[in-house]
User: Fold this.
Amino acid sequence: MAIDYQPKIVGFMCNWCSYAGADMAGTSRMTYPPNIRVIRVPCSARVDALFIVKCFQQGADGVLVSGCHPGDCHYSEGNYHARRRFALLRELLDFLGIEKERFWVEWVSASEGKRFSRLVSAFTDELSRMGPRNTWGNQVDTTDQGQG
Amino acid sequence: MIQQIKDKAKELLDSGAVSCVIGYERASDGLTARPLFVYETEDVEKLIFDETCTHNLVKYLLNIKDKPTAIVVKPCDARALNVLLGEKQHQREKVNIIGEACPGVVETSWNKKGDDLEARCQVCTQHTPPIYDFLVGEPIEEPSPPSTFSDVADFEGKSAAERASFWAEQFERCIRCYACRNVCPGCYCTECQVEQVNPEWVSIRLTPEENLMWHVMRAFHLAGRCIGCKECERVCPVNIPLSLLNRKLQQEVLALFDFQAGIDEDTPAPLATFKKDEKLGIGEWHE
Amino acid sequence: MTPRVYAYYPGCTLHSTAKEYDVSARLVCQSLGIELRELKDWTCCGASSAHSTSDLLSIALPARELQAAEEMGLPLAVACAMCFSRLKFAIHELNDQATLGLVSDIIGGELRNTIEVVHLLKVLEEEKEDLPLKRPLTGLKVACYYGCLLVRPRDILDFDDEENPQIMDHLIEALGAQSIDWGFKTECCGASLPLTRKDIVLTLSHRILHQAKQLGADCLAVACPMCHSNLDTTQREIEAKYKDGVGLPILYFTQLVGLAMGFSPKQLLLNKHLTDPLPMLKEKELA
Amino acid sequence: MARIGVFICHCGTNIAGTVNIAEVLEAAKQMPNVAFVDDNKYSCSEPGQASIRDAIVANRLDRVVIGSCSPRMHENTFRRTVASAGLNPYLLEIANLREHCSWVHGDGKETTDKAIELVRKAVNKATHYEALFPKQIGLTKRALVIGGGIAGIQAALDIANSGYEVVLVEREPSIGGRMAQLDKTFPTLDCSACILAPKMVDVGQHPNITLLTYSEVQKVTGYVGNFEVEILQKAKKVDHKTCTGCGTCWQKCPEKVPSEFEVEMGERTAIYIPFAQAVPPKPVIDVDNCRYTKYLRFVEEGKEGKKPPQCRICERLCPTGAIDWEQQDQVITERVGAIVVAIGYQTFDPSAYGEYGGGRYPDVVTGLELERLMCASGPTEGEVVRPSDGAHPKTVVFASCVGSRDDRMGRSYCSKVCCMYMAKHAIMLKEHDPEVQCYIFYIDIRAGGKDFEEFARRAQEEAGAIYLRGRISKIYEDGKKLIVCGEDSLMGRPVEIAADLVVLATGMVPSDGAAELARTLNISYDSNNFLIEAHVKLRPVETQTDGIFLAGACIGPRDIPESVAQGSAAAAKLATLFSQDTLITDPLTAVVDAAWCVGCFLCQEVCPFNAIDSLVTDTRTVAVVNEGLCKGCGLCVADCRGGAIKLRGFSDQQLLAEVSALWR
Assistant:
């Protein structure tokens, strides 16, 4: 595989814990690879399973969903529901040829800037090691959803 | 046995308890079965039930929600009905369920009737409907459950790359006729997400990836709801092994949440509930 | 209804210093129609020494007994509290697959760790409703003394409350005797120290005997040979050392059951105790 | 076709240091729908905001994207900026170029590339933004306070004094709570009843306070500003309007039962007030024990055998004929705008401690029982005696951390007050009888509080209490004595003390029914059933549910001053809420498209806030969102198979737009 292969990562971060954790990583200047693009959502439970598939379909090599630690959900129960949803989706994706290692669901609290940066680094390393993901036949030409 | 159905249907129609009885009649090939809607008592005689009655009639019930209706169901169909009752799609009191104790149905196609039981019946562990108002035939002794997910296990034997290319090939063929959806008792949205343009989840481009998007959507929307009637696969004009996706999820739902769809109408669906202390292999990364 | 057949592990003491425990136990069980089949080729359970020298040894020794019981396919009944404790610990440790493998290699042959170990006290307590009493122990005040080994640690031995156990009390009450409520049921008697630190044994045993005497007990009921020897054999020294007349007969619960069921003191080897119970029993017209 | 303005902030060198702003601007120009791009040294500065404001007006921009610091930092600032230009504030999107990019990645091409992507992502999302308008909902300026202990009393008084009506619900026949049971309070040794009683009387007489004793909250519906509460008023069988509280009835009632207030160390009658200073000072009839109600039940159930006597003495003696046998339980419905939960605590039941006798020894008492024994109005009129034989104890041993800091009991937390009340007891016992010698087994002496350490010292130096560091291993009876065995871990040797009385310093546990009430209110509680505050440090008296506040020991172990402070704090929070005439709801909520809803009500099942109602249309029953309750988490949105629910500000379309903007 090419040395300069850079995995593409989408991150869905809940506004109250994980997005804040990412901010914390920033304020404490904890560097991590620039491969991740963070999409801000109110709660990990907001993330429809299909978003994940869409990301892969759009060419992502890995997707990271992150929310508050179990029990700390700002909406009290969201991450519990997310956990079930994504446990199933992970299996389904793997079944479709997207290895489990490409779809991480991890909890990061608002104070865990360090954890966030280490997590993203670890994920990026893992994906670099794995190389480009299996595609389902031809890559789609991605039209711009922006034309609303 | 058939007489039992006829008598019951007659009784229900005459008494005015129901306005329609949904059942099976002999198809015009004289060999297979097709759905029958009985409104008039004289049509009762057309009713049949045998190993050719493969269709899941529950789907039709969705079109006659308001009027009291009787329906002939096999155990698997009854499970679908349970799911729909749980999802408030029917009022129990408006549905009169004629349950069939069912030893299994055989492979059929136009003018053809196989000798072997359909694959789903070979692994079936429920031969008496979990719900009914009137049971036709004697309750059938349940056989000890065989390992029902060998097909899934076999497929998981393949490498990820093989799995991906397998589905790529399959979905290459998909023409998005949506027969799989239209036949599925679990699919009843007023406007299916796949056809929504705003947002456009799936483009109409017939690429394997877009098709896959659709099939994942279908499978996942049925997660914890699919009762494994395999109608989707039966009706697929290009023979995509669709139920494999459903069965994978069925297996996981059973393994992770110890849940089977349609066993009763009260147990909350696995994605509608949770356990605080379950781990599910999620959130286990440590530095 | 408790099982009527058990594999039986007497352990070393019941073949020597605690013969009366063994004899009375067998007598009582036999006449209740409970069959005790002694393990073939049994060895020491490791007692108080093995676990202080080698963890593995302390598991392997009792594992042999468990294996023997597995071969007989019977639950294993034990009379000695020490053996009971060691066996329970072994079972606990063997729940770890690695340990199980290791130990089976050491003792040779298959070991599945499927055996349930029960103490005779529990076996008889479950019979308490229908004991054929010929000579109810009316008027006899018994201090039930459980010792440590039977109850601690609770989560492994899973026998009875470690602070205020009740099983023996219930059994004794069922015999028509009165069990006194006291706080020393599970106090240490000095355990294996009589040879090395006699002073400690005297102190601890004295406290126990003193309390029992204070509360007007006529005798102590025990379920552990070691407790028995500590409490029975030290009484003269204690009385000398503390100028405190604590003399109390120390009887095995099996002997009391036997007595109530009408066996003679001779049959129950009541004469084997250093503190002779007969005068007290005669006075109570129980012998 | 949208006209989007993109503004990139240098944030001094914080962003510009590693991100090539010029390149980002160039790229932004090429992005779809972008009509204007500009940069600022500091966008959040007044001039920065002004230039954005002017640009919006000058270029007729209808969407704004700002590449700057985290939206968690300045989203509200920039929303105001946008609004000041006459644009709807929700037409703003922020690209997080600082925390998520310039600060965490080195100086290099990939950092600038990422910045560009983040901007494109924002632009794409903004394209799908629509104007949102906050809703105004009315609010009922009445408060409900649950629990009439000191915290609830304080809250009720403060709210009432700030001019709002309060409904105070207490499940016992009188307010006062635990504090009323205490003899003295540490560290000042004030008489507890003496400082509490006046407040109780104020509550009873306050024109703004409706006091509902002998009542429990049953059901709560609605949302902040508009709660509807069902309160079960248990039958008192006494008409409190006509009753004068003269006391004849409870003096003459022949039926004696153990008094809950006296921790069953004293008796009360079947018609009773729990204690002398009770508020209201009017009795209730305990129908489980009253002879006449027993008789009525007996007849009703048509039992065989001897009938209980038809006593009715209270009825005959009552000068105002206030006894009302017809009175039944009734449900009262109150509309309130906010709720204060102050349901307090109860003491740990030590019977689980077998080594302390598990409740078998009469002379092993709890701290609360000792309070009653020491109290002049208690069952012994303040004479400290042994429950077993009435003798005066000379040697008293205390066991600390009973049901606290003990994982065996599933209680790992510190109950906070025990160390101090043991010191108090030691001092008081010495005052009662100079011959008393106290021994206190402790793990640590936790005296963190004003004058607390001094007080604990006083117990040792003046009252001569002997502190032994270690746990008690066993207590047993030896004749009239209780032998206490323990370890003095500082001396490193076992100790035995022959005591006359042993006092177990039992810890604080949540009141019975705390979890049930929490579920009724839909607020969260921890594994110990203590209620959980919105933020343990910054929002200590609020909950995650708007309009519901907490105070006192129901949150966790608290002493009296803390509980009072929290009562006032909750009242202040509530008054702040009531100072508005209408409530502005965040428009970022879920909304159901009835046309697409199939009415499966999965959303209703999963919603943590009961925010989904059902709406019966001409043909179908569909889901509808109660925007007062919806917190905008989006759980239902993701679970809706039909895509019928949309989350404003985070719609499927908007998020998909973000995804599809990546890696172009």
Q: What stands out?
A: The mean pLDDT of chain B is 91. Chains B and C do not touch (no CB pair under 8 Å). Chain B has two domains: 2-136, 150-272. The two ends of chain B are 66 Å apart (CA to CA).
